[in-house]
Specification:
The protein has 75 residues and is mainly alpha-helical. It has one domain. The protein starts with 6 loop residues before the first helix and ends with a helix.
Amino acid sequence: MQIIIDDYELEQFKRAAYQSKQTLSEWVRGALRRSLKKNKGSLKNKKSIAESFYELELESPPIEQMLEEIEMGRL
């Protein structure tokens, strides 16, 4: 999964993850899980969430940029 966010939001998310003593990936997964629970996490809701991702027409950055960002996240 790839989610495009602006630099300001990324810094906020990184700060929240740091304060929670989690990696950014762990923090994001937790936020997504909490969102599912908040929406009762039913199979119907999960399906509609997944379907909404496919309906979006998002552009992907070049693979070099994605790999660089992945590597930066590991540091």
